[in-house]
Amino acid sequence: MKKFSWKILNWALWTEILLSYFLPFWVTDNFRYQVGFPMPFLSAYDTGVCKSPFLSMHLNPLGLLLDIAVIYLAILACVKAFQKRKHGEREPFPPRSR
After folding, report:
1. Which residue in 13, 54, 89, 92 has the most C-beta neighbors within 10 A?
2. What angle do CA 47, 60, 48 make, to 5 degrees?
3. pLDDT in tens, 41-91
């Protein structure tokens, strides 16, 4: 088993934060907004003017960890594919001899 890459995990975490910031919120039930990609991990509820927004938020840590794991695996697959291409792996189908 190979070592765990903290650098790729760092990239996955920052990618999740940036995707959550730039992608639009999902509106459900006309009063709940959800944030996160590919799974929502933060829900904000529409409340009155006098309430604090922090009291109307719900953080799903399991959803956040799952999102980071999915992005980690995607980045890891891209890195491995790039390394294979860069180092010139052998062709998947060798030429036929005649």
Report:
1. 13
2. 5
3. 999 888 777 777 778 888 999 999 999 999 999 999 999 998 888 877 565
What is the number of structural domains in the chain?
Answer: 1
SS3 59: strand
How far apart are the C-alpha atoms of 17 and 67, rounded to whole Å? Answer: 10
What length does the chain have?
A: 98
Q: Is residue 21 part of a domain?
A: yes
Report the distance separating Cα 78 and Cα 80, nearest Å.
5
Residue 96 lies in a domain: no
**Does 93 reside within a domain?**
no
Amino acid found at 37: F
Please tell me whether the peptide bond between 38 and the residue prior to it is cis, using omega within 30 degrees of 0: yes
| DSSP-H helix ranges across 1-98 | 6-22, 61-87
Q: What is the span of the domain harbouring residue 67?
A: 6-87
Predicted TM-score (pTM) of the model is 0.75
pLDDT recorded at residue 89: 59
